[in-house]
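Chapter review: from sequence to fold.
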Amino acid sequence: MNTAQHSAQHSAQHPAQHTAAPVTLITGGATGIGASTTRRLLAAGHRVAVTGRDQARLDRFAAELDQADAVLPVAADTTDFEAVRAAVEATVKHFGRLDHVIANAGFSTHDNLADGDPEQWREMLLVNVLGPALLVKAALPALKENGGRIVLVGSTAGIKNTPGNMYSVSKTALTSLAENTRVLVTGAGVGVTLVAPGRVDTPFWSTHPDQAAPAGPVLTADHIADAIVWALGQPTGVDVNTVVVRPTGQLH
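The token string follows.
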């Protein structure tokens, strides 16, 4: 069964009520910051479409949430525009609207220009930079209808560069994408927020050589989820553009 068929079957089994409750689509929403944000959004009364590459994993996460009427798991490769557009369309069809999108999917190769693998850099740049751009493009028509908001999850690595680090390059590009998007859509009533976390204790570090965050202060995924939900909850007419969240004691 392909993704579109799966989404159609899910909608048939769990018909959503087209209410005024806000609808948010989040990429990479089944783990780490994404999973915490999904839970926070549901607690705040949102209906949430959660994307990732593994439909079975998404379905398990949705089952854990136990809110079938408010959650739509949709498999989508964030670097494939047709897949992203299909996820947006499935969300609008299922819930009747789309108010917000959160470009959360991303990863690091945890290396540098001297010793890194260029093929891994290619994938990281596609996921971390192209993916959010594709989500913006696919979601803009629906967001303009509702005066919605876009949140791009960046990093302090995109504000304070780490020497030779390609992840830092990717997040610097995302920081630029956030401002480029803001200038593009602000006249259409769409808000744009870059949320740039410092060190956060999540599965992000599982691919690090040490398989753990560097020694020192760290945030939790819930801390960043709170910042994202706060940004989405700003009143009409207020556009918070950059939120940098570091653990107390992190220098860079």
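Two observations follow directly from the output. Residues 176 and 223 are 24 Å apart (CA to CA). The chain is about 45% helix and 15% strand.
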